[in-house]
């Protein structure tokens, strides 16, 4: 489930022109691709929320999901920072 969160945040990050150019330096992202990446990213975040709630129950699922959101976002931020310096 953590992998789904990380992929979701990564898709949302590369939907922006700056991060897309940073990761894929060969071309710019179009508006259609940006909308598709954002939709896929938010869909994976929503799906992971349902998976956590289904696995742990509503109370612990939401709490654990928000904690893992923080860890996944930090992972994507570290990747983008490292990618920028290489």
Number of strands: 0
Distance between the termini: 29 Å
- Average pLDDT for all residues: 90
| Fraction of helical residues | over 70%
Major β-sheet, in short?
none
Strand content: under 5%
Gyration radius, rounded: 14 Å
Structural class: mainly alpha
Identify the quaternary structure here. single chain
Overall, the morphology is elongated
Number of helices: 4
Structure report:
86% of the residues lie in helices and 0% in strands. It is mainly alpha-helical and 86 residues long. It has one domain. Helix 1 packs antiparallel against helix 3 and helix 3 runs antiparallel to helix 4. 19% of the residues are buried. The model has no long low-confidence stretch (mean pLDDT 90).
Question: How are the elements arranged and paired?
Answer:
Elements: H1 2-14, H2 17-23, H3 31-56, H4 58-85
Top keywords for this entry?
86% helix; mainly alpha; single chain; 86 residues; elongated
Short description:
The protein is mainly α and about 90 residues long.
């Amino acid at each position: 489930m953590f992998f789904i969160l990380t992929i979701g945040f990564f898709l949302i990050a590369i939907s922006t022109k700056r991060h897309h150019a940073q990761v894929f330096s060969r071309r710019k992202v179009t508006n259609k691709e940006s909308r598709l990446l954002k939709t896929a990213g938010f869909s994976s975040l929503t799906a992971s929320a349902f998976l956590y709630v289904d696995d742990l129950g509503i109370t612990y699922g939401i709490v654990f999901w928000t904690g893992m959101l923080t860890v996944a976002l930090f992972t994507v931020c570290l990747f983008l920072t490292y990618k920028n310096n290489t």
